[in-house]
Amino acid sequence: MSTSHSGLAQEEATGKVRGRSGAIFGASAIAALGGLLFGYDTGVISAALLYIAPEFGLSEGMQEVVVSSLLLGAIVGSIGAGPVVDRIGRKVTLIVLSAVFTLGALLSAFAPGTEVLLSARVLLGLAIGGASLVVPTYIAEIAPPPRCAAGWCR
């Protein structure tokens, strides 16, 4: 039995894929955390409102505004991330979004008033919406050719 040249090339490619699969899995797992942010931040506010509402003296209507401000930011972030990605690339965009998310989380944690809290929630939404757009395509692009999504391989 002889192995054809294309068979050897395929085995070599598979070996390269196996060697890089740990790094690719790690990068994909970290990038996929961006998708978890959306669910976590929209869910955690329910419990946080028990403490936030009395602290800031929020009416029921203002509580609704605090909750929905993240969603408003997510809409703007998902729409606005496209041109940013085209200009600076997916990886750099994800790094910038991580910094924006960190800033929003810190502002939320140390918000002295309702205005800062609302601004922080909008910032968090921008980062989450942008990540929702960028993360799936970034993961598809870093996948090796035998496993990548059809049409996204380099």
UniProtKB/TrEMBL annotation:
Annotated localization: Cell membrane
Keyword Transmembrane helix appears in the UniProt entry: yes
Membrane topology term: Multi-pass membrane protein
SUPFAM superfamilies, per database record: MFS general substrate transporter
Residue ranges annotated for the Major facilitator superfamily (MFS) profile domain, each copy included: 27-154
Keywords: Membrane, Transmembrane, Transmembrane helix, Transport
This protein's record includes keyword Transmembrane helix: yes
Pfam families attached to this UniProt entry: Sugar_tr
GO cellular component entries: plasma membrane
Residues spanning the membrane: 24-53, 65-85, 92-111, 117-139
Any single GO BP term: D-glucose transmembrane transport
Tree of life domain: Bacteria
Gene Ontology MF: a single term: transmembrane transporter activity
Similarity comment text for this entry: Belongs to the major facilitator superfamily. Sugar transporter (TC 2.A.1.1) family.
Protein known as: MFS family permease
